[in-house]
Amino acid sequence: MTAVEVTPELKALLRRVKLGRCLDTLPERLALARTGGLGHGEFLELVLADEVDRRERTSAERRGHAAGLDPTMTLDRWDDTAKVTYDHKTWRELTSLRFVEAGHNALIMGPVGVGKTFLATALGHAAVRRRFTVHFERCDRLLKRLRTSRLDNSHDNEMRKLIRVDLLVIDDFALQALDALDTADVYELIVERHRAAATVVTSNREPVEWLGQMADALLAQSAIDRLKSAAHELVLDGESYRVRQKPDVSDRDEPLDQSTTRPRSSRRRR
User: Fold this and answer.
1) Helix 116-129 vs helix 40-66: angle between axes, to the nearest 10 degrees?
2) What's the rounded Cα separation, in Å, for the pair 244 and 72?
3) How far apart are CA 165 and CA 117, in angstroms?
4) Superfamily for 75-243?
5) pLDDT digits (tens, 9 = 90+) for 201-215
6) Distance (Å, rounded) from C-alpha 250 to C-alpha 255?
7) pTM metric for this prediction
């Protein structure tokens, strides 16, 4: 299909009404209208649909970045040929995001490298596209940030933000031992969010092992019991998924550019 030339006057008008990005697809749409016999209304609807889709994608990317989500870990990029086993029925239920709407939880567990973080992040991206508020953070960084927030009296504010978010994703939960302050923060987050907002937790450990990682046994038991009672559990097993994320090595036999690979001296030789 031959693209149609867009006049400078039309380009200027589109930019004035902040529709300049329509120019990315407008020539093709004009050609389609000409060859397909589209009416004026059909053509306008097609062009505006392109713009709405573009804005939705841009907005989702921006909100995903603000949520702390890795942009490469989306549902469409998961490799189904990976030798990783899990309950596909449970996964389909999670991807429907009904658990987010219901304020339920998801525990994604399994050995190192099988794709727990990838799947949790993908759920976060799906939720962002559905206009849910999302926050993703590794457990140790989250707890360290909360501990630091006590120093400038912002702890209560930070906790409120985490409690109110529609979907909280905590990666690598209980990988390290939690002291009394960490345990208290985890307890408050889980109790306040219980059946009110959704939480996704990934971990290399089983819930029974989490108890031994937390300083206060009573708070730990109370928090974990609530977390599990409203949770879907997805257990992954198999070969490491990370080998599929390694960068490709070019097959081309190209000579090295010595001018760019040779280390430079910080001092001029005398």
Assistant:
1) 130
2) 13
3) 19
4) P-loop containing nucleotide triphosphate hydrolases (3.40.50.300)
5) 999 999 999 999 999
6) 12
7) 0.77
